Amino acid sequence: MTLRSVFRSWMDHYFSDEEAVILLIVLVLGFAVVIWLGKMLAPFLTALVIAFLLQGAVNGLTRRRVPHFLAVMLVFLGFIGVLLAMALILMPLIWNQLINLVQETPRMFASVQQLLDDLQLRYPQLVTPDQIQAWIGMAGREVTQLGQRALTLSLASLGNVVALIVYLVLVPILVFFMLKDRDRLVGFIVSLLPKHRGLMTRIWQEMDDQIANYVRGKFTEIIIVGSVAFFTFAFFGLPYSALLAVLVGLSVLVPYIGAAVATLPVAAVAGFHFGLGDQFLYVLIAYGVIQALDGNVLVPVLFSEAVNLHPVSIILAVLFFGGIWGFWGIFFAIPLATLLKALVYAWPRGIKQRRQEVSQGERAAGS
């Protein structure tokens, strides 16, 4: 079999239907808009994701015979309440703990230096004074660069305060109208597509179910893991509990890698505050129990209907989308990978069903 025949067979398998070609064009245009106009459309894309999350609650209320507009108002007011609670309670708490952590950095460095000096006295053959000075100098340079980046970011962000306020006003407005006029907006978009779109409909339904399950499940997982981590850290009297809990909650966005990265600050803060004693060990055990329950109990319950991705696929998605869009690429890496996998599986199945429908229609017309 020649390369040309292989390529022709692949094209016939995926693009033998004109609707598949149109779907490919729509997908390419969609990704192009996000890549090149992502910053400009950031408020709209943010509102789209939030509305996608809240639509499940609206559907749940309407199934209980609550009028659509009332359901939208109840869900939207709940969203505004959560937003205000984060802005007035959670964010100031996290900011204060971050400032206290930065102010406590010199004392932490002194503790590290004392620990290294003790190691050098106990194991003079393994740890030399030159190595200690090199480690301290490297850590000092990293902290200095981090402080410079934070200062640059804070100074640069002063000019974006107006833009931030506009976003905070614009996003809730967009969310409200996306929830209220969802059918009208979807109808407008559908009117731009071809009339015969059975393949697109089947692929969209499969992807919509999987993406919806994943996004809503991941949001629930972040809330549960972050809340449990906060109460656990507060129970042990660990400082910066809110800051660490937010970090642990967001770490579930990147399976495997996120848990490993979040362990370092938790262990560092516990070690500096409690020392390498029993309390330090209890905190790490509790943190390990949280991670174990998340991976073995919470994730199977929340994502039983979502597409399962291989760990290699997850890592590649994080590297690829993170390299393109930075933090937001990492944030949406797994949903995008889930979308691509659903598309790969649904596309040939949809073409096959379309062919069967066409052949059945031809046989019915011939008879």
TrEMBL record:
NADP is among the record's keywords: no
One Pfam family recorded for the sequence: AI-2E_transport
Presence of keyword Transmembrane: yes
Protein's cellular compartments: Cell membrane
Native source species: Halomonas aquatica
Keywords from the UniProt entry: Cell membrane, Membrane, Transmembrane, Transmembrane helix, Transport
Annotated protein name in UniProt: AI-2E family transporter
Source superkingdom: Bacteria
